[in-house]
Amino acid sequence: MTALDEKLLREIRAIVTDCASATPPDDLGDDDDIIELGIVDSLSLMEMVAAVNARLGIWVDDSELVARNFGSIRSIHALLAGKGR
Q1: Domain containing residue 65: CATH number
Q2: Which band of pLDDT confidence, cut at 50, 70 and 90, is reported for residue 84?
Q3: Which residues contact 5 (CB under 8 A, 6 or more apart)?
């Protein structure tokens, strides 16, 4: 994993933590299901998308707002990294 990937993962983790509907555990892994764990709900998901746009300058299309893209920190990373950050 490149330094840029590591930086993006840290930024995504910060966005998830800031927008979470419940406090994420300290040991939250990059592959943990943040929806199933109750860390993210529909409102916090919308806040996360707004934060991604504002903080990272990356636009997320409505069609991309699915659990497979936002189910974990790593899946969010895959989506955003694929947009050529």
Answers
A1: 1.10.1200.10
A2: low
A3: 77, 81
